[in-house]
Amino acid sequence: MLVDYKKLWILLIEKKMSKPELRKAAKLSPATLTKLNKNEYVSMDVLVRICKNLDCNIGDIVEIVK
String of b and e for 30-62 (b: at least 16 CB within 10 Å)? Predict the structure, then answer.
């Protein structure tokens, strides 16, 4: 199975937040942001930090693709 973070990028647009702003707010490393851009796996801790900063649930930012 693959992961797709398209929902995350749409949510950022809706909240008028840039990727660098998200990286700083959620304390993400540049490597983690690169993984998100490439639809690669990241830790649950990363997803939780993003959700806390965007005030959303994990299902609002990531989708499992079969």
Answer: eebbebbeeeeebeeebbebbbebbeeeeeebb
- pTM for this predicted structure: 0.92
Other Cβ atoms closer than 10 A to 5 = 20
27 CB neighbour count, 10 Å cutoff: 10
What DSSP string describes the chain? Answer: -EEE-HHHHHHHHHTT--HHHHHHHTT--HHHHHHHHTT----HHHHHHHHHHHT--GGGT-EEE-
Question: Model confidence at 1, in pLDDT bands (50, 70, 90)?
Answer: confident
